[in-house]
Amino acid sequence: MSPISKQSGLGWTTLSVDTSTPTLTDIKNDVTNFDFATPRAVQDVTGVDKFAIERLLLLADFTITLAGVFNTAKSHTVFKDVAGTNVVRTCSLVISAQTLSNECVFTDYAVSRQAGGALTWSSPGALADGTVPAWS
Predict the structure, then answer these.
(1) Using an 8 Å Cβ cutoff, are 91 and 104 in contact?
(2) Which of 65, 69, 100, 127 has the most C-beta neighbours closer than 10 Å?
């Protein structure tokens, strides 16, 4: 019987993002949740002779939204100057020996103080360099 290859979302090996200097910084301990996607654009090329849609795959993309706990020593150092810089940053994800690294621009660094006193942040990023996202 083969081992189970299913994987939970626990125990990420790497979740790193460059600072603006650039210095790749491991922020996995500050990140509480995140979403990422590797969508493709499509073009509808359906002729009037068809009874179902025909499509072509177009450009690839990568988007990510990170969210976490405010930490002046790590995540705040990475994102604090997002609004004032136009810096492409490496974003590297590794789980179960599977790596996804992309060059991204981060477009916001939103900090929130909740009613109970929690201080959290979120930061969305998008592909910056035209390289097709690929797991390795």
Answers:
(1) yes
(2) 127
